UniProtKB/TrEMBL annotation:
It comes from Durusdinium trenchii. It is a multi-pass membrane protein. This is Uncharacterized protein. It is found in: Endoplasmic reticulum membrane. The chain crosses the membrane at residues 71-95, 148-175, 187-208, 238-264, 302-322, 328-347, 376-396, 408-428.
Amino acid sequence: MWLGSAVGITLRYALYFARVPEMLEEHLELNSPITSHVRLKEGLFFLENGISPYAGDTCHTPPLVLLLLQLFHHVSPLVHFTALVLVDVVTALLLRKLAVFYRIARQEAGVRWAEASAPMGMAAKEAAGIEDVISPAFVGLFYLLNPLTIASCVALSLQNLQHLVFAFAIVAAAAGKGGLSAIGVALSLYVCPFTAVLLILPCAALAHQQSLSARKARDWETGAYSPSWQQRIMNCGFIGYCVFFASLTLGLFACLLGASAAAMGGELQFFEACFVSVIAVRDLTPNTGLFWYMFTEVFQRYYLLFIFAFHAHILFYSVPLHLRLGCYAPTGTFIHCGAALGMICLFKPYPTASDYGLMLSAMLVQAELIKESQQYFAFLLSGVMFGLSMVPTMVAVWLGRNAGNANYMYNMTLIVNVFGSLTLSQWVKAGLRLRKRQHSLAYFRQLVLDIVDEVVADPKAAKVKASAHLDTALQ
């Protein structure tokens, strides 16, 4: 892990001193209106000259982040770059820690989950050997050495700061620290308005699960079968915890807004520029998402309707995912968190290429799901990589040489988002299949044990009962 981290850091500094940032900081696939380094410099210039950075439509960086980065603006640019490198390193360490927590949860799930994730005809020990290749260190290094993440860091984009707070919120929940996780989700809402609301339910469920007693962990390990009608869909204690978690998150977010207003001397222009403008998608700068093209084409009188549809549809995913995956401890909540992280990367108004690096790193935490969906996963992932690699070419043809139109860029973003959505959906389907298989294995195991107990207790009665069942089946 440390050798790989050293390689990743060295590579970033080598590209920085080769003056690569000057070539990448205006690339549309690596920067967005809210994470661009060029816009950040303009906002800092206005702030230093006594002008509100939010008076125009240039700066969309939240005030507290802007004031924090102002400290690095007065020193060498190398210090600013070093801070971004440290953000990547910490994010990689958090992803590694998340993989460690998931491995513990998988051990608590016992052999039932291992048998469900093992291919037919393969022993659970052999399957575990395959999954050990993707170790927690591998997950962290995959993010740190990912070319998309490196390019985003070298382009001086603030996108990786969002990745840091996302990972912090989930890892804090995995550690059973509900308060710290609420802080992480509030920070996520602060740097990624509205879309980060998808983290509230899975983080609350994960924090609640991890805070359970050791006795409950032993109950998970037994893997005993229980009929569906005996299982509670919603636990009253969890509902209360979730309401408290959501209230704490929104309260902390309100405190961040209050601190931002105080930092800006009572002026509220930041709220319009950093939150309302982002949610309303007023800046239609091309990026790897779908919002910019759709809202360029939509009629103005239907603008609010499409804004509502594009944002509101993500609210319908959390509860079904919790009922189908998240409420099945101890592994289901981790899968729900990974799915929520992937949906944020796909459905935020201003995504970048590095978001897909984070999504793939989160998917690698549950290695057995990738193994389960490997028939389509590699093909779909290739589609995502193809689209991302073609975006710079299409931008150059359209905006550089003026030899095309916006459809050149839109076609590639459509490929990226369609293949990215299919990749995430196949990954979630794999989790559903494993859960069903685990349930079926427990059911048939319990059925066989009941038959053996009947035979041992009264062989004659068991024989008569089996004959009656056979005659009924033949009729």
